[in-house]
Amino acid sequence: MVKRTTPKRTSFRTVLRKAGPPAALLTVGAFFGAYAIIGPNGALAYGDIEKHLERKRMELASLTKQREVLKNRVALLDPKNADPDMVDELVRKDLNVAHPDEVIVPLK
């Protein structure tokens, strides 16, 4: 005579205990993998990063040029050796003064 055995039922806790950690690791790995591909610094965003970098390089070149112009103006206003034309230009612009024999033509 053949003895029949019924399959042993496993409880939900046992299944969760055995399958929980690998499922959690798989979920976390999938999250970080997707983030590495489609995230803001991911592989698909590389082209946008290159465009942004090129814009920033152009902005840096413009600001460097403006800085050189301002550096030159500051050098012309050095108290020890001020450029008379630069001083005259600033005084006329800021204080709105003119010589008595000059004619002022307002520009609109």
Descriptive overview:
InterPro entries: FtsL/DivIC. The protein is 65% helix and 0% strand. The protein has 108 residues and is mostly helical. The protein has one domain.
Overview features:
108 residues, mainly alpha, rod-shaped, FtsL/DivIC
Q: How would you concisely characterize the structure shown here?
A:
By secondary structure, the chain is mostly helical. It has helices at residues 12-38, 46-76, 84-95.
Question: How many helical stretches?
Answer: 3
- Which stretches are poorly predicted, pLDDT < 50 over at least 5 residues? none
Give a count of the beta strands, DSSP E runs of length 2 or more: 0
Rounded to the nearest angstrom, the radius of gyration is: 38 Å
SSE order: HHH
Number of domains: 1
Query: Helical content, roughly?
Result: 55-70%
Strand and helix layout:
Layout: H1 12-38, H2 46-76, H3 84-95
InterPro entries: FtsL/DivIC
Organism: Sphingomonas populi
Pfam family, one: DivIC
